[in-house]
Amino acid sequence: MQQHNDYRALEARYYMPAFSRDIMIVRGKGSRVWDAEGKEYLDCVAGIAVCSTGHCHPAVTKAICEQAKRLIHCSNLYYVPGQAELAQKLVERTEMAKAFFSNSGAEASDGALKLARVRTGRKKFVAFTHGFHGRTIGSLAVTHKPGIREPFEPLGMARTFVEYGDAEGLRKAVDSDTAGVIVEPIQGEAGVIIPPDSFFGDIREICDRTGALMIVDEVQTGMGRTGKWLAIQHTGVIPDIITLAKGIASGFPMGALLAREGLEFKKSEHGSTFAGGPLACAAALATLQVIEEILPSISGKGERFRTNLSKYNPRVRGLMIGMTVGDRCGAVQKQCAERGLLVNCAADGNLRLVPPLIISDEEIDQACTIIREELG
Ligand SMILES: Cc1ncc(COP(=O)(O)O)c(C=O)c1O
Q1: Which one of 82, 131, 212, 274 has the minimum C-beta count within 10 Å?
Q2: Running along the chain, 376 residues long, what does each successive block of 10 average in pLDDT?
Q3: Digit-coded pLDDT (tens) for 7-30
């Protein structure tokens, strides 16, 4: 790897400038990372809710290394080691029936849209304001944020946006031509926005009445992040299709699509060269085992953040925390980084904390002390 001093110049010369960034992280352990200059940070970003078991968890690292020595890739032309076992573990924890793997969250969204279209024979989708489902052409079509979507319109998908949380608006928008309603149980990129649980019961009822499929995007909220395997499990609603990615394999790229009984791709309807490969499955199986052990502790850790940050009225569900801080969000993010704490500004001046699920009470207190001192 090109190290240290010249990486900024090298990137400016050779890499497309699609990101704004300053720090190069070169090493991680648990909830901590180190930059190229050797500075240590407590990481409350965790690759944006990806490094669920912390950085380089020994069980995950071991599973990846051992699998890498046996078989790195073989193609979905053959049975893939770990793939069916992982599918079983995922559907058993989510009340779904079958799984299909992808390499990212956006691909999981695309797969969900394809599955809804091909099984219903309908073309239209309904999505929500401030929602985010990815940046491929399909997932971008149901992503609301005008700044990232509009430069690429038309995206070739019949789609309507309804205000997030507005059940009456949804009732008017969904009809017998609607293939699916796609929704995040908590809007992450929008800044951790948590609607009332009853909203999801309304979506379920509207979908049941019209025959549209209820697609719940758990890419950011899934696999223990909110204190249950899925955020939708806090509401008691069972969707038709669920998407996962981010925290599912501790940072090894992987996404998944889960569907209820009777909903599946038939031969040749979907596929992918890399998806659900041996390394990704090994990383995900090890990740699930670690999360299984720590799942009961996650809600309590979230409450510790809530108590520590109560002055700022945080929105908390497990280890997904948002606070509206307004225009100074960017400056707060920078100041925290200078003091050795990584936090992230989501949309509209919302500070977002999505630390590793293994974060300790002492680390939570340390993070909150810095945030309080910076917010005043
Ligand atoms: C809710 C949600 N869906 C989909 C995606 C897209 O995932 P990916 O970046 O892996 O394509 C994201 C990414 O932030 C997300 O938060």
Answers
A1: 274
A2: 73 96 97 97 98 98 98 98 98 98 98 98 98 98 96 96 98 98 98 97 98 98 98 98 98 98 98 98 98 98 98 98 97 98 97 98 98 96
A3: 999 999 999 999 999 999 999 999
Segment 175-197, tens digit of pLDDT: 999 999 999 999 999 999 999 99
Residues 143/131, Cβ–Cβ less than 8 Å? yes
What is the rounded average pLDDT for all residues in the chain? 97
Probe residue for ligand 1, chosen from 45, 142, 184, 220 as the CB with the greatest number of ligand atoms within 8 Å:
220
Count other Cβ atoms within 10 Å, centred on residue 66.
Answer: 11
Distance CA 12, CA 108 (A): 31
| Contacts for 146 with CB less than 8 Å, ≥ 6 apart | none
The residue whose CA is least distant from atom 4 of ligand 1 is 133
The Cα 197–Cα 190 span in angstroms is 18
> Among the atoms of ligand 1, which is closest to the Cα of residue 218?
1
* β partners of residue 342: 43
Cβ atoms within 10 Å of 213's Cβ, excluding its own? 26
Annotate 165-227 with DSSP letters as a single string. Answer: T-HHHHHHH--TTEEEEEE-SSBTTTT-B---THHHHHHHHHHHHHT-EEEEE-TTTTTTTTS
Ligand 1 neighbours, Cβ below 6 Å, are 104-106, 109, 132-134, 184, 188-189, 217, 219-220, 245
Q: What does the block give as tokens for 276?
A: 């659900």
Taking the CA of residue 246 as reference, the ligand 1 atom at the shortest distance is 10
Tens digit of each residue's pLDDT (9 = 90 or more) over 91-104? 999 999 999 999 99
How much of the chain exceeds pLDDT 70, in percent? Answer: 99
Assess if CATH 3.50.50.60 describes domain 59-288: no
Distance in Å, CA 69 to ligand 1 centroid: 30
What is the domain partition of the chain in residue ranges?
Answer: 59-288
Question: Considering only CA atoms, which residue is closest to atom 16 of ligand 1?
Answer: 220
pTM of the entire predicted model: 0.98
| Chain-centroid distance, C-alpha 253 | 12
